[in-house]
Amino acid sequence: MIRRSLLSLNPELQRLFWLELTPGRLLVMPLLLALVFGGTYLVRGATEVASAAEIALCFLLVLWGSRLAADSFQEEVTGRTWDIQRLSVVNPLALALGKWLGGTSFAWYGALFCIAALGAADADRAVRLLPATLVAGLVAQTGALFVAMVFQQGGGRLRGGVAQAFGVVAGAGLLNTVLIAPPMSAPLPDLLWYGVEIRPTDFILATVLAQAGWFWLGAATLTRRELGEHDGPVMWTAFLVYACLLALGAGGTVLSPHPGWSYHIFAATLVAAGLTYVAVVMTTFSAAHVKRLRFAGWTALWREIPSWAPSAVIALGGAVWLAAVSERPAAIIGWTGNFLRDIAIVCLIKLLLDRRAGLVLVVIFALLYLFFPFILSEAAGRAWGQLLRPLPDASLQGAVGPWVLAAIVVAPLARLVGKHWQSA
Questions:
Q1: Over the Cα atoms of the chain, what is R_g?
Q2: Which is more confident, 358 or 50?
Q3: Buried b vs exposed e over 102-124: b needs ≥16 C-beta within 10 Å?
Q4: Is the pTM of the predicted complex or chain greater than 0.85?
Q5: What three-state secondary structure class fits 2?
Q6: Exposed/middle/buried for 51, CB within 10 Å: 0-12, 13-18, 19+?
Q7: Bridge partner residues of 192 (DSSP)
Q8: What range does the domain containing 106 cover?
């Protein structure tokens, strides 16, 4: 039986290996690192070699690796070769894997020498630092690749710097949480997740590693859409279920020292609502898409449904449950009205405007959540401010007010969109 290697199964990975791992680069990387580590040893001694190796490792995997991951896709778009790849028969999962591992292969090659130097200089330190550093590199690179694909899907101009910044923030945030902050603060108690005690650092590392996998799957899903294959919000719904289950297990201990299921459901509902906001902002809308959604049959409806719809349904279900069991449901009812109003505003503004929708939405939500509540509170009292931003102890006014104001805002906007379509 003929054994086929990963390279033969993934032409994109093979192509990027040939481009990134040239003989000259393979020789220059160890020489430069040897110069850095050797100079550090001569000037500061052996104890500082571990620090130099750690800094170089973070630079290669997080800072530079995220840039290489974003560029692995951006260069295809700017070089006008992405359309050729879209016509190929490469599997979307293999294409996303090839762009990530192949595009960042030179950074990982240099990381091997940094790991060797760190282990030789201080083995105990290497054991303590390597898990978090490697996971930070993974989430930074996959996150940058995912954001680059999101820019392409949204039809906006691809900016590698934005994708890199996202990856760097994700990776640096993990390093700060796991390696930098704990020694400077009191030790955190173990986290109770579905009744199992877990160290916070272990929980964070595991969830961030899983997030890196989700970033890669998200990039593969967007690649699949670029290749003309659209299967609806399957991957987004799977990630939604994962995130809600994650929050459901840890929500009680995070929100209350005496957890009950209401706190767990509240945490999962917040996650579903937050993901709904992310999805509705990222989703592009057009009149053609709305028409396809209206006339789609039951078999095609799932492929046309917006990605934010499943998360919105879960968030509304959680809100209904919380309102039913809460002693003071007014705030929950009011914020549910705000939630539906916000979704309607984003959808209608995106249908009405194209390029300027983002700026208009920023202005609208700044008025709704900052300016108008402040004016109402100062002019008419705290109770009137809850018409737009209900507080936990809200009265009936805080429950009904947001729904009334939502109708006042959304109805004219919907009529304006209808007239715009008729005249178009």
A1: 25
A2: 50
A3: bbbbbbbbbbebbbebbbebbee
A4: no
A5: coil
A6: middle
A7: 197
A8: 8-229
